[in-house]
Design a protein that fits this description.
Membrane topology: Multi-pass membrane protein
Radius of gyration: 19 Å
Order of helices and strands: HHHHHHHHHH
Main location: membrane
Strand content: under 5%
InterPro entries: PQ-loop_rpt, SLC66/Scramblase_ANY1
Protein name: PQ-loop repeat-containing protein
Helix content: over 70%
Distance between the termini: 75 Å
Number of strands: 0
Oligomer: single chain
GO biological process, one term: retrograde transport, endosome to Golgi
Structural class: mainly alpha
């Protein structure tokens, strides 16, 4: 039997810990005035996943600590997204006009465009919930969508690291927070007997964290050669434009 005070501390840690992981990442970007190395898609995944998880809570009242965590994470990612856009690298798709995504998804030039998309996403979720919210099947699917999205969180960073052959710009504190936090929450979900969606997706997410730890060991965090070449190309293009 777990003492009540231990359970309470664990719940507080679950609610506050994950959003705080990104505080040091945000501080590092502001300090360097450069968001190179941190995948902005991480913000997209966390925002969409936690918004969906809030609607999941309305249909399946899981632990209050996890709902509070989602609300705090949404606020934290909105702030981090703003910082990433303000200090985006010179070679970002918005700056060079080279986005290969349909409608330049999540590579828009203005922060307000991201907010407009998020508001539209919330409205769509609200409409669907009003229509199908009484269906147990819909709530189950909603839970898997919410937790499934969140479990893909490390994948954009994994891909970014592989392309750069380096973890430059990705804070060690964030990696430690991911690995430690996901390990903790996996145990927490099983101890608290959380819904199945939480358990399955937590295990998957932890496995991706392990892959990024291996990347850190193999690649290190040196400035990637591709970034240096891109900066040289941009400077040359700007110089020619001025001529």
């Amino acid at each position: 039997m777990i003492p009540q005070w231990v359970s309470m501390l664990a719940s507080i840690g679950m609610a506050v810990g994950p959003p705080l992981v990104y505080a040091d990442q945000a501080y590092s970007i502001v300090q360097k005035q450069d968001a190179t190395g941190f995948s902005r898609d991480v913000c997209a995944i966390l925002l969409l996943a936690n918004i969906t998880r809030c609607f999941f809570w309305l249909g399946n009242r899981f632990e209050l600590a996890l709902l509070i965590q989602s609300v705090l994470m949404i606020l934290a990612q909105l702030a981090l997204l703003y910082i990433c856009i303000r200090y985006r690298p010179k070679a970002s798709p918005e700056n060079v006009g080279a986005s290969s995504r349909p409608f330049s998804f999540w590579q828009w030039p203005k922060y307000t465009q991201y907010l407009e998309f998020i508001v539209g996403f919330v409205l769509c979720q609200a409409i669907l919930f009003l229509i199908f919210g009484r269906s147990e099947f819909f709530i189950t699917i909603l839970g898997f969508v919410a937790l499934g999205l969140e479990s893909t969180l490390p994948i954009p960073q994994l891909i970014s690291n592989h392309k750069q052959r380096s973890l430059y710009g990705f804070r060690m504190s964030t990696l430690v927070g991911w690995f430690g936090g996901d390990s903790f929450k996996t145990v927490y979900f099983f101890v608290q007997n959380s819904p199945l969606q939480f358990k399955v997706c937590a295990i998957f997410q932890l496995s991706i964290d392990c892959a990024i730890v291996v990347q850190r060991i193999i690649f290190g965090n040196a400035v990637p050669a591709t970034t240096l070449r891109e900066e040289d190309d941009i400077e040359q293009a700007l110089a020619l434009a001025e001529e």
